[in-house]
Amino acid sequence: MQKSPLQIARASYQPKVPRSLRGAMMLHEGKATQSVADQEEIKKLFPNTYGLPVIDLVEANEADKPILPQVNVGVILSGGQAPGGHNVIAGLFDGLKRLNPENKLYGFLGGPSGLIEGKYQELTADIIDQYRNTGGFDIIGSGRTKLEETWQFDNGIEVCNKLGVKAVVIIGGDDSNTNACVLAEYYLQKKAGIQVIGCPKTIDGDLKNEMIETSFGFDTACKVYSELIGNIQRDANSAKKYWHFIRLMGRSASHIALECALQTQPNICLISEEVQAKNMTLNDIVNQIVDVIVARADKGLNFGTILIPEGLIEFIPAMKRLIAELNDLLAKNGETFNALDSDDEKRQFVKGLLSEESREVYRDLPKGIAKQLTMDRDPHGNVQVSLIETEKMLIEMVAKKLALLKAEGKYKGKFSALNHFFGYEGRCAIPSNFDADYCYSIGVTASQLIAAGKTGYMSLVRNLTAPAEEWLAGGVPITMMMNMERRNGKMKPVIQKALVDLNGAPFKYLEAHRAEWADEHLSYIYPGPIQYYGPTEVCDQPTQTLKLEKGKC
Ligand code: FBP
Known about the structure:
Helices cover about 45% and strands about 15% of the residues.
């Protein structure tokens, strides 16, 4: 396979790791923990993994290094790709080999289904070496199969026993790590002798809490999108003729849009969590955008940038109700709906079954969007927000409103809009130094948790705004992050998803500066591409979100 000069250089990049992961290390256990909420229920559901202590890995004398028996480990990549996944596996591999050169690592292929169906590959040094510091999940592939049924867990035991696998590492988002915890508990109850360790992945940045400072992949993905947004802003400021409506990935939370706004200072950045908190309608959002466009037009500035979080539509309260009704209605009448020939018939059919309030919302939507809302659901029955072109919908609605204002003589500008959607552009990018270092450290840490016989833990690396050597490694019990939530009509134990905190420093920064960014001519920032080699202040910086959260800017 031919490689670019950067690919060749990155293959030999040595990730920076915390001091405590460099030589011999030992474990310090803290106090017993509690779940973030619903303690009694979670404790009942996880009798074996509830209340475990937080673990810190600390430097030890070489002489104290334990002699460890040989172990086989399996690894799974779960859910959407995120830059750095290959480095978690490389760190895990190197960590295991350091513990005992006879240790073996198996990759379960195509996500969690690889464990259930017994599809695997042994990951040897020559395979790992081809993937060090690369983006993508192609080393073993990923998948979105949910691990939640007992028969799946039992199949897993059979497959692990066949391979002699004593520990499974699940690299995934909040749902996959919830499932990792359920699996850990089940294997303890069954005395299966299989440990389960989770690793925090998702570009969406919504798997974070008191202990987990950020999920991996968020850093690189946001830097890639911010480069593109910056380039667009420079073009907008040069050509001075287009409004760019840019939708950014992030299925639910708006962390990506917020981080990109902090990096680029666009004219508008919508935040879904704010829309929900203020109970805004679609019209309120359109009016907010129109106000900025009109004000800029008055100054002769008929161009600009607007960031739109992918999950926006589900945070507009009236749309949320409509989508919930559509989910229900399509689950019950899917066959009849799909048998209808034309879009118009489908539209009428849906309208006939909606409540009066939702029918009105549905009727007022641009036809294309109304159609997208009734398209295929994901395996969990949810609307696939990445397929809904919110940016096009907003352009259409804003253009209509501006035309009305023009007719009334209240708008004299020219509105030409372009739409963009950034998601897949960043999910498999070559990991930034931050993600390369963070992920490798997460992998090495996971190997240590396995060696210590731990299960039901998430590999933890924190203090991330300090230089990598000062990062702290350890483990956090997954039950500590859990609460009870309604899912598919039933109360379930799940890891609490982190939405944008409207009282948090990153949002407060946006709030304090957005009027100036909307108005000003020269507030755009052009971050440029990720730099892998050069001064640390250019190459190793964490996200603005992390820095603001930690009071570091
Ligand atoms: P994860 O939550 O699994 O990390 O996936 C995140 C994500 O990239 C979202 O931002 C996006 O909505 C979704 O995956 C798209 O998934 P797919 O590529 O499977 O359609």
